[in-house]
From TrEMBL:
It catalyses: L-homoserine + acetyl-CoA = O-acetyl-L-homoserine + CoA. The record marks 192 as: Important for substrate specificity. It holds the Pfam family HTS. InterPro entries: Class_I_gatase-like (IPR029062), HST_MetA (IPR005697), MetA_family (IPR033752). Belongs to the MetA family. Pathway: Amino-acid biosynthesis; L-methionine biosynthesis via de novo pathway; O-acetyl-L-homoserine from L-homoserine: step 1/1. Its EC number is 2.3.1.31. This is Homoserine O-acetyltransferase. GO terms for biological process: L-methionine biosynthetic process from homoserine via O-succinyl-L-homoserine and cystathionine.
């Protein structure tokens, strides 16, 4: 089944070239079906790239999904045109009157700052609080996961000695969990961050389950038993070339950056990277959408 996207969204051409079925609003409204309603809070600088990555994963479900995009008004994007934001994005004030089956909060390049010093922190807190009553299930990604764990459970992040950067094997903790159903016992996940959560504080929180983890990256996928809150510390949504683009960007800017772990064949950046995490990324989002579809009421107003 297709995903339903705003008319004219740039990602549509890319998705169509990959044989992904995406319906624009004008066509989707003619189908007599109750699609899932998902809102994406996109905090990443390159919003079109992130839109495409996440829509690519959501589209692999057999369910029809309506997509809304949300932006914070407390931050001015320098890497995405205002025309694009005005055309395809709503502010929280415009979104908050609605209910949703799912919310996705992306990462953001602000991990060097204490949470309270991020210029849109108060607005993000308001959104996360709103999600408790207006969204059935929320996925938090990377910095978004750290922010969610801090806001909801008081789990602080800490600066690491070196950047966790590359493709890391993760050990599956519960093979029968619905969210990771079908995962191999070892699966790969991209990571790109300078901070990590306090694992000791996490272990003391009742009601959070670690679904996969690694000795290199710590906890990777964390969730409440009812999946109302899901936290993914890595970037399963990343495309094949994303880490390469980050690596060469930092090299060009003269920033200290190590070769991404387990990414370039033979650790040679001249070699094309291998897309080794795609199947598990697709499976995770398919499982999530399937669970949400089974559990949310037909009438979202009764959430």
């Amino acid at each position: 089944m297709p995903i339903n996207i705003p008319n004219g969204l740039p990602a549509k051409a890319i998705l169509e070239s990959e044989k992904i079925f995406a319906l624009e609003e004008d066509v989707a409204t003619k189908q007599d079906i109750r699609p899932l309603k998902i809102v994406i809070l996109n905090l990443m600088p390159k919003k079109i790239e992130t839109e495409t990555q996440i829509l690519r994963l959501i589209s692999k479900s057999p369910l029809q999904v309506d997509i809304d995009f949300m932006m914070v008004k407390g931050h001015v994007s320098k890497n995405t045109s205002q025309d694009h934001l005005v055309k395809f994005y709503d502010t929280f004030d415009e979104i908050k009157k609605h209910n949703y089956d799912g919310l996705i909060i992306t990462g953001a390049p602000v991990e060097h700052l204490p949470f309270e010093e991020v210029d849109y922190w108060e607005e993000l807190c308001e959104i996360m609080e709103w999600s408790k009553k207006h969204v059935y299930s929320t996925i938090h990604i990377c910095w978004g996961a750290q922010a969610g764990l801090y806001y909801h459970y008081g789990i602080q992040k800490k600066l690491m000695d070196h950047k966790v950067f590359g493709i890391f094997p993760q050990v599956l903790c519960d093979e029968y969990n619905f969210l990771t159903n079908g995962f191999d016992e070892i699966h790969l996940t991209p990571h790109s961050r300078h901070t990590a959560i306090d694992e000791e504080a996490l272990a003391k929180v009742k009601g959070l389950e670690v679904l996969s983890k690694s000795k290199h990256t710590g906890s990777n996928i964390i969730a409440t038993p009812d999946f109302h809150q899901i936290f993914i510390l890595g970037h399963l949504e990343y495309g094949k070339e994303t880490l390469a683009q980050e690596y060469f960007r930092d090299l060009k800017q003269g920033k200290p950056i190590q070769l991404p772990y387990n990414y370039f064949p033979e650790d040679d950046p001249n070699n094309e990277p291998v897309f080794s995490w795609r199947s598990h990324a697709n499976l995770l989002y398919r499982n999530w959408l399937n669970y949400v579809y089974q559990m949310t009421p037909f009438d979202l107003e009764s959430l």
